[in-house]
């Protein structure tokens, strides 16, 4: 399980540049005052498809030659990765086959359909998602684009932190949420390669704290029946992702459902940014442990903004 190198991340950035935005960085005087430090937000909610996932999906799909792509691409995802694969496949001129849990947010289902993908619904368990995806691949011959446990996905997601640290090179901390671990591992790797003095912090819901448990024990741990308002984080961390996290992450903070919802509302009201609950997990961790970030420069990657606006949690 070779980790992506700095060269891999740079090549990924060049490969995907035509298909992504270098998203802007924003600040909030209100949040700076609450924390007692400087906080910078890398707004991947402004990314194509509304989330950072476009980076990894584009890196995988565009790494294949046109003649290798003809059968299309398949994946399983609750939403943002599904949209990214659908969009990147459309950019490549091929079909996307997406397996989604039947309880995925309608806004994300509609977006996947809008990019022209074929959706197959499954039960909302990791086992059924993977099983249904295998069946789709057997039927179609499509190439699988794993949501997170893939070095090319990790290298693609790493480009967000690369852009961040190039624009804000003196960060003391960087915080991202962690689900499957593509962004978490990619960001940690980037810092390890280009800014080793910046400490990588991960944020996770208390109700889905498998990465925290794994990090503390040194061995992969699972969580039975995960439930959280942060629907994008309801997966267990990948093996390759975890190996990177073990080596490059400084610490992991867990937050409650109420803390996630409060952080989401704060960003909506004070920064006028549409962020989804999974993004708010990182903000909640910042606010819960603000004494650790006082007097420091902290970067947070806002991972996405795909929200069912007629069913907000606050």
From TrEMBL:
Is Transferase tagged as a keyword? no
User: Which cofactor does the UniProt annotation name?
Assistant: pyridoxal 5'-phosphate
The record's keywords, sorted A to Z, are:
Pyridoxal phosphate
For the Tryptophan synthase beta chain-like PALP domain, which residue ranges apply? 17-304
Which InterPro entries does this entry report, sorted A to Z?
TrpB-like_PALP (IPR001926), TrpB-like_PALP_sf (IPR036052)
Native species of this protein? Reichenbachiella ulvae
Taken from the record, one Pfam family name reads PALP
Name of the protein in question: Pyridoxal-phosphate dependent enzyme
